[in-house]
Design goal:
By secondary structure, the chain is an alpha+beta fold. It folds into 2 domains: 43 residues; 106 residues. 43% of the residues lie in helices and 21% in strands. The protein is built from 5 helices and 6 strands, in the order βββββααβααα. The chain has a 3-stranded antiparallel β-sheet with strand order 1-2-3, with no helix packed on it. Strands 5-4-6 form a 3-stranded mixed β-sheet. The longest helix is centred in the middle third of the chain and has 18 residues. The C terminus is likely disordered.
Length: 154
């Protein structure tokens, strides 16, 4: 493992613990050259999971790509990194357990369902991209689904 500060390969593990409810290992490391301490996480690889896009093309699942999209939706919202990690971990386990391939629409719908519970503004932002709203009326319709009588949120 390279030190993120000085790029030395002389790093050592000084502590290891289970994280994310046993789905990852958190390691504290220290550089032998510059004494910088940093944290790494070891997770099960989901490289066997293939995403089937709308046009029928297939590509390997990328957690970072999906996480980037979620964070764009959560910009300036009170959403923690832990909440996003938990959301992704839960969904990745679901997708990996059920099949080798998962449609991008299923991924988008699952993310929307979880974001709706987490933050309604982030949900609407994500939905506007995933569902490709054609006009303001479609956007208003989706907003209307969030609210019940009296203006109280679901």
């Amino acid at each position: 493992m390279y030190c993120p500060r000085c790029k030395s390969t002389e790093t050592s593990v000084i502590d290891s613990r289970l994280a994310e409810d046993g789905r990852a290992v958190r390691r504290r490391r220290e550089c032998g050259k510059c004494d910088h301490r940093f944290t790494t996480f070891e997770r099960q690889e989901l490289s066997a999971l293939i995403v089937v896009k709308r046009d029928g093309t297939r590509e390997p699942y990328s957690r970072s790509k999906l996480e980037r999209g979620i964070w764009l939706s959560c910009t300036k919202r009170p959403v923690s990194q832990e909440a996003v990690d938990d959301l992704l971990n839960k969904l990745e386990e679901k997708w990996a357990a059920s099949r080798k391939e998962v449609g991008s629409s299923a991924i988008g719908n699952d993310v929307m369902r979880e974001l709706k519970k987490l933050d309604q503004v982030a949900y609407i932002r994500f939905a506007s991209v995933h569902r490709e709203f054609k006009d303001v009326e479609e956007f208003k319709e989706e907003l209307g689904k969030l609210f019940v009588k009296g203006g109280e949120a679901n």
